[in-house]
Design a protein that fits this description.
Number of strands: 12
CATH class of one domain: Mainly Alpha
Shape: globular
Mean pLDDT: 91
Radius of gyration: 22 Å
Strand content: 5-15%
Largest sheet: 5 strands, mixed
Distance between the termini: 64 Å
Strand order of the largest sheet: 1-2-8-5-3
Number of helices: 16
Order of helices and strands: HHEEHEHHHEHHHHHHHEEEEHHEEEEH
Length: 419
């Protein structure tokens, strides 16, 4: 069956501005017109969009190995060669080498390694005065990322420099990929600044891991004994702002959802890890940090009954697939209880961390850290969102409130007594 929709003609038919300006409206309007799978034109490329849970599952499982990761042409210059861009035997080999870094035993060590980072952050956490929720948790996530993937002993000064460079580097992902500099480097395009930040980040990473690297940094180096530069490239990917932004996004959504009166009962679950896991999963389902992902078809195939020709770009929309009413009743409602009731067998149908053989390698580490940070929050603080704020979300480039939503955190009496 041919994919419905229209892709227009080159340049004139491009819909990139509409998609990036109002992505949810763009997707929902076309889904209503054409169905769950439809054709469009983004970045002047004919693109198939998948919005149903079943179609996304079919793509990500990719049992026929007919798709490559679709990020290389946009992100390669910013990250250089790493596991995200590898294909075939090279990818299988590197994935196998890295998997042991994120198994249950390794995650337990990571929790111990980062425990003091989290405790110090919350010990000095600003209370009784409103703070910007997303920015606050991005700071925590950045410190965690540095401790996990570089060194727990990174100085505050180096951490600050790394955080600033991470931000510059991230902006390259959402900039027009034009590397331009003015005379004597008095002016640089955003993309050019991002490339400069990449080089400085790699130099700092190389310097830090010479002395007291984290367990993950040491293991990645050990995987790349024949190519030390490859180790730096993998660490650059893990240290990049993608991870702190994802953590900050989910933690912000958790704080906002749990501040609602109808969700008050879930704030009493700090000692039940299984319930905390369900709460975190529900926030990931409703508010995935990134709207979806991209693939490129390498051989003619069929996905969800539709013919996809070789060379076609395919975008899967985790945001909509996670809210598919065919799988989730009351799909737009925050209902952690669904994971122990009607959706108990559907945990693998949440596509926040991708799925199938190319699923995010750090998924278990991420969800475990999020659970532990939420537990720390619930055990030590109460909070209220400042009233009369705009709580509407944007979903690009990161899913979070459109405005700098503020909340006031108050330390509990039991927390004060113990400190």
């Amino acid at each position: 069956m041919q994919v419905p929709g229209r892709a227009g003609v080159s340049l004139l038919g491009d819909e990139s501005i509409e998609f990036y300006k109002t992505p949810r409206e763009y997707l929902e309007k076309r889904r209503k017109t054409y169905g769950d799978v439809f054709l469009g034109r983004i970045i002047n490329k004919r693109t198939v969009f998948l919005t149903s849970n079943k179609a996304v599952q079919s793509l990500l499982n990719d049992e026929w190995q007919h798709f490559s990761m679709g990020y290389k042409e946009f992100m390669y210059e910013l990250f250089d060669d790493n596991v995200l861009f590898l294909e075939g035997d090279a990818w299988h080999s590197m994935r196998k080498s890295l998997e042991s870094l994120f198994d249950h035993e390794s995650v337990a060590r990571c929790l111990e390694e980062t425990k003091s980072v989290v405790e110090e952050f919350f010990r000095n956490f600003s209370t009784n005065e409103p703070v910007v929720v997303y920015k606050t948790f991005k700071l925590l996530a950045t410190r965690l990322s540095i401790a996990l993937f570089l060194s727990h002993h990174t100085s505050p000064e180096d951490s600050q420099v790394i955080a600033e460079l991470m931000t510059l580097h991230w902006r390259g992902i959402i900039s027009v990929p034009v590397n331009m500099r003015g005379p004597w480097s008095l002016w640089q395009s955003g993309y050019s600044k991002a490339l400069s930040a990449k080089d400085r980040l790699k130099a700092i990473i190389a310097d830090i891991i010479k002395s007291r690297p984290s367990a993950i940094a040491s293991s990645i180096e050990a995987c790349c004994t024949e190519d030390k530069e490859a180790g730096l490239r993998h660490l650059l990917l893990f240290v990049s702002a993608l991870i702190p932004k994802a953590f900050a996004s989910i933690l912000t959504s958790l704080v906002l959802e749990l501040s609602k009166p109808e969700n008050a009962r879930w704030r009493e679950c700090s000692n039940d890890d299984s319930l905390l896991d369900n709460i975190v999963l529900e926030a990931q389902r409703l508010w995935p940090p990134f709207i979806g992902g991209r693939r490129v078809c390498t051989k003619d195939c069929v996905v969800a009954g539709y013919r996809i020709p070789e060379g076609m770009s395919v975008v899967y929309c985790a945001y909509l697939a996670n809210r598919d009413s065919a799988v989730f009743s009351e799909p737009d409602s925050f209902k952690p209880e669904r994971w122990s009731q009607q959706n108990a067998g559907d945990r693998e149908k949440v596509w926040t961390f991708g799925g199938g053989p190319r699923q995010c390698i750090g998924r278990y580490l991420s969800t475990t850290l999020l659970r532990e940070m939420l537990k720390k929050l619930l055990q030590n603080f109460t909070w209220e969102v400042v009233p009369e704020q705009d709580l509407r979300y944007k979903v690009l480039p990161v899913c979070r409130p459109k405005e700098d939503v503020m909340a006031t955190f108050t330390r509990t009496s039991s927390s004060s007594d113990s400190s």
